[in-house]
Design brief:
Strand 4 and strand 5 form a beta hairpin. The protein has 449 residues and is an alpha+beta fold. The chain has 2 domains: 131 residues, 2,3-Dihydroxybiphenyl 1,2-Dioxygenase, domain 1 (Roll); 278 residues, no CATH class. It has 20 helices and 5 strands. The longest helix has 28 residues. It has a 5-stranded mixed β-sheet. 44% of the residues are buried. Helix 7 crosses helix 19 and helix 9 runs antiparallel to helix 16.
């Protein structure tokens, strides 16, 4: 940021010395930028626009003063490894990040360790006046790691997903493993021929419970995005996946779903500029071949409607997942999932009533089945899925989804007596090998400008 408008400069100066931060300011301001500008497009818009950060001792106290002064709060207080963070829009286009220091370690920075210069009055005056020094030179800055969506210049760069790879892969695998239980639960416990009613009960009740628990509604800037994500990930995806299941042989429907990693890689490149690695592409191809060998049988009963629904469900979840990563909201994953489930469930409610009529009678077995699918197979699964998307590349996360048919096959053999032979064993090995291959990454060092 080379210059500041008079309004912006005045707002920043007032924030640094006026009543807004009075009694709560620990240090600042600091410049918050990226060494690699191409990574900026991967972040939410309000993060991209943030250039200044202050360290305070109580974000909520500052927010109360801001609300009293009519200053918009863009990001609710969000806990992180340093304490918490938030964002205010002090003036149009002037977005300031707040970092809450809750420990002596975080409130007393070790500048050499964090590779950034200590704050000084000279630096603060230069930032407030828009003067960047001779010949447009700027003071040294810290890069945000491309996988860490919330790191800031005045906080130590979090280690990110690279240093806890097994744990994050396990977190990612939770979602497809839980989703794989949907097939056998639906077949053995739920009423037949009521897919829309099943989709409604899968989304809306748990969504309302999660929303009541978190008690956070989408802010003004996130209402349209919430509707878009809720429709793509829930409202459209659930009916399309059921429609494809009813109009395609099960093996073919699962094989079409196995195209998800490749579609996600394409969408992620277009929207995030996330380049698919050779390992990921190769792993996706191998995994697709494995799924086909694992589940693909007869192709009789194929309909154009079924193929279109299967392709549409893949496109919806691919675009929805990538947009969720691009538009990472300033809330926790439980809140994010609750928004989407409620939006999707409210869309499904009239559709289910119009198409399928009144709700069927539910016995104890069906109630238990819907509770499992709603609470575990949807609520918990989607929280894990979107948490993984926040921490890992979209292509890597999508590849792990291929364990879904592997787990479903194991459950079918164990509980439904389905056949398992050499083709299934080879297919399972190919899927798992492709998933593992797709997680291989090269680790480039941090580059400085």
């Amino acid at each position: 940021m080379s210059t500041s408008t008079p309004t912006t400069a005045t707002a920043i100066s007032a924030a640094g010395t006026g009543t807004l931060f009075e009694g709560h300011l620990i240090s600042g301001p600091y410049e918050r930028v990226f060494f690699e500008p191409e990574n900026r497009v991967k972040l939410p818009d309000f993060i991209q626009a943030t250039r200044i950060m202050y360290v305070v001792d109580d974000i909520d106290a500052v927010y109360r003063k801001a609300e009293a002064a009519g200053i918009p709060v863009l990001q609710p207080r969000t806990e992180n490894t340093m304490g918490a963070q938030g964002r205010l829009e002090l003036a149009p286009g002037c977005i300031v990040e707040l970092a809450e220091a809750t420990t002596s370690r975080s409130s007393t920075p070790t500048w050499s360790r964090w590779a950034c210069p200590p704050p000084c009055a000279e630096h603060g005056r230069a930032r407030r006046s828009g003067n960047t020094g001779r010949a447009g030179r700027r003071s040294p800055r810290v890069s945000t790691d491309q996988h860490d969506q919330t790191a800031v210049v005045a906080a130590p760069a979090r280690t990110g997903w690279r240093t806890s790879r097994p744990a994050l892969l396990l977190l990612t695998a939770v979602a497809p493993l839980l989703w794989s239980t949907t097939y056998i639960v639906t077949e053995t416990a739920l009423p037949p021929d009521r897919p829309l009613f099943g989709a409604l009960l899968r989304a809306l009740p748990i969504g309302l419970v999660m929303l009541a628990w978190r008690r956070t509604l989408p802010p003004a800037g996130w209402r349209v995005r919430t509707v878009v994500l809720g429709m793509l990930n829930i409202g459209l995806f659930f009916p399309l996946i059921y429609l494809s299941a009813y109009n395609l042989p099960g093996g073919l429907a699962a094989t079409v779903q196995a195209l998800l990693p490749m579609v996600v890689m394409v969408v992620a490149y277009l929207l995030l500029r996330e380049r698919p690695t050779v390992f990921r592409v190769t792993g996706a191809v191998i995994g697709f071949a494995g799924v086909a060998l694992l589940v693909l049988g007869t192709t009789t009963g194929v309909t154009v409607l079924g193929l279109a629904a299967a392709a549409g469900s893949v496109l919806c979840t691919a675009v929805g997942s990538v947009l969720t990563k691009r538009w990472q909201p300033p809330v926790d994953m439980v809140t994010l999932v609750s928004w989407q489930l409620v939006v999707g469930g409210l869309f499904l409610l009239p559709v289910a009533l119009l198409v399928e009529g009144a709700a069927p009678h539910l016995d104890a077995k069906a109630v238990a089945g819907y509770l499992w699918i709603g609470v575990i197979g949807t609520g918990l699964a989607y929280v894990c899925w979107f948490a993984a998307l926040r921490l890992m590349p979209a292509g890597s996360v999508a590849l792990v989804s291929l364990v879904n048919p592997v787990s479903a096959t194991v459950l079918g053999v164990a509980f439904a007596g389905e056949a398992f032979g050499l083709p299934q064993a080879v297919g399972m090995a190919l899927v798992l090998g492709g998933v593992a291959l797709g997680q291989v990454v090269r680790r480039p060092g941090l580059r400085r400008s």
